[in-house]
């Protein structure tokens, strides 16, 4: 690895460069400990591999579904989805993009979770209960906890698997409770007992009894609330990127750009911002990256699956800390006070990055412009 994790008494873990990185270079790539598709995203027919989230429909099928119209895409050779490799679990209706994903899922967690779909299984009830308290736009999924616990149950060394999980848990019981309430929203806080009961019924508890207590469940909710990374994959976006890189004549390029603009307008009119297969995942190395309001790295999904690529936003020197932003681009444009408020609400820390320190003379109040953007 060209990076290392260091421990700091004040900030905790951090990722540091062991060599220089140029802007736009890949710092590292990483597969997750576990990942899963968001519940409503799957329910609305966004077809993705149940293991790695790779799209299971061609770019043309994807464009037609999202736009609600018959679409004929030019340059079909730019579509990278090979539907001949799609396979399914022989024991349940779950689909995978390849035999490799099917076997990896079964060996790591799916053997524990596999069940016939009849609406009465505790896992199905857990998923439906979660959907009733976590409507779109989604940010997380309780099914990630189910996979995380099943991974422990199927591990050859349970102690190591538990230790890997506990690496993500670093909050007190009170903080875990606050984060769990934030994740569910005050309107649905009382449903936390229902979710806990359904999870306990769904997962074999031998060897992980401490994780399935109510306090353990709060810690797991806090874990996914503060450590998960959103994952997005798209057949049409991947096709568009490859088509845009074709060597086209100027006139052909203009025709293609016009077609692509019109297509995205049609898709957005039909489904709004919900263009991607969306999921969440837990990454051991990426989760060690600290936040900065002026980050020098960004997360991308260049393989159109759950494999994460961390890419340099600017030149990075050897020994420099590699920081990402926990905030989206819109929030990053807001005042220091608004950014810090968002970070405290969602991650329970006060940001002391260079940008925030340089803006320390700004008033400690939310500006009217920020309020307008939030609305």
What would your notes on this structure say?
- With 375 residues, this protein is of the alpha+beta class.
- Helix content is 42%, strand content 14%.
- The chain has helices at 39-43, 59-67, 99-113, 122-133, 143-154, 158-166, 173-184, 192-202, 214-227, 235-244, 250-271, 329-332, 336-347, 354-358, 368-374; strands at residues 3-8, 12-17, 26-30, 34-37, 87-88, 95-96, 229-233, 277-282, 290-291, 297-300, 308-312, 321-324.
- A 4-stranded mixed sheet has the order 1-2-12-9, with no helix packed on it. It has a 3-stranded antiparallel sheet with strand order 3-11-10, with no helix packed on it.
- Strand 1 and strand 2 (12-17) form a beta hairpin.
- Helix 2 crosses helix 10 (235-244) and helix 3 packs across helix 5 (143-154).
- 36% of the residues are buried.
* Strand percentage: 5-15%
- Total helical elements: 15
Please outline the major beta sheet.
4 strands, mixed
**Span of the ends, CA to CA:** 43 Å
Instruction: Compute the CA-based radius of gyration.
Output: 22 Å
Question: Portion of residues in helices?
Answer: 40-55%
Name the strands of the widest sheet in spatial order: 1-2-12-9
What letter string, H or E per element, gives the SSE order? EEEEHHEEHHHHHHHEHHEEEEEHHHH
List unreliable stretches of 5+ residues: none
Based on secondary structure, the structural category is: alpha+beta
Count all strands and give the number. 12
Mean pLDDT: 93
Shape: globular
Summary, kept brief:
With 375 residues, this protein is of the alpha+beta class. It has helices spanning 39-43, 59-67, 99-113, 122-133, 143-154, 158-166, 173-184, 192-202, 214-227, 235-244, 250-271, 329-332, 336-347, 354-358, 368-374, and strands at residues 3-8, 12-17, 26-30, 34-37, 87-88, 95-96, 229-233, 277-282, 290-291, 297-300, 308-312, 321-324. A hairpin with a 3-residue loop joins strand 1 (3-8) and strand 2.
């Amino acid at each position: 690895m060209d990076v290392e994790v260091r421990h700091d008494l004040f900030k905790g873990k951090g990722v540091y460069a062991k060599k220089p990185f140029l802007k736009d270079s890949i710092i590292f790539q990483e597969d997750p400990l576990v990942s899963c598709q968001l519940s409503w995203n799957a329910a609305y027919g966004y077809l993705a591999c149940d293991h790695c989230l790779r799209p299971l429909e061609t770019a043309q099928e994807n464009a037609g579904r999202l736009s609600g119209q018959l679409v004929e895409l030019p340059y079909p050779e730019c579509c990278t989805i090979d539907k001949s490799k799609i396979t399914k679990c022989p024991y349940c209706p779950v689909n995978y993009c390849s035999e490799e994903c099917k076997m990896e899922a079964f060996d790591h967690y799916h053997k524990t979770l596999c069940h016939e779909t009849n609406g009465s299984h505790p896992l199905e009830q857990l998923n439906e209960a979660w959907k009733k308290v976590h409507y779109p736009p989604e940010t997380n999924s309780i099914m990630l906890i189910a996979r995380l616990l099943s991974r422990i149950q199927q591990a050859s060394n349970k102690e190591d698997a538990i230790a890997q999980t506990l690496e993500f848990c670093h909050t007190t019981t009170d903080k875990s409770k606050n984060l769990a309430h934030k994740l569910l929203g005050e309107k649905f806080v009382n449903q936390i007992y229902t979710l806990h009961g359904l999870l306990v019924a769904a997962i074999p508890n031998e060897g992980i009894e401490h994780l399935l207590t109510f306090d353990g469940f709060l810690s797991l909710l806090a874990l996914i609330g503060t450590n998960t990374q959103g994952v997005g994959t798209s057949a049409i976006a991947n096709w568009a990127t490859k088509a845009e890189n074709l060597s086209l004549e100027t006139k052909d390029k203009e025709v293609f750009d016009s077609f692509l603009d019109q297509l995205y307008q049609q898709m957005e009119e039909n489904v709004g911002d919900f263009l991607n297969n969306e999921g969440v995942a837990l990454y051991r190395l990426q989760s060690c990256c600290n936040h900065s309001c002026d980050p020098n790295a960004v997360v991308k999904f260049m393989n159109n699956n759950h494999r994460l690529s961390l890419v340099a936003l600017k030149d990075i020197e050897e020994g420099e800390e590699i920081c990402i932003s926990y905030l989206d681009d819109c929030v990053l444009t807001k005042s220091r006070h608004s950014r810090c408020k968002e970070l405290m609400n969602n991650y329970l820390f006060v940001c002391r990055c260079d940008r925030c320190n340089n803006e320390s003379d700004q008033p400690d109040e939310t500006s009217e412009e920020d309020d307008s953007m939030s609305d």
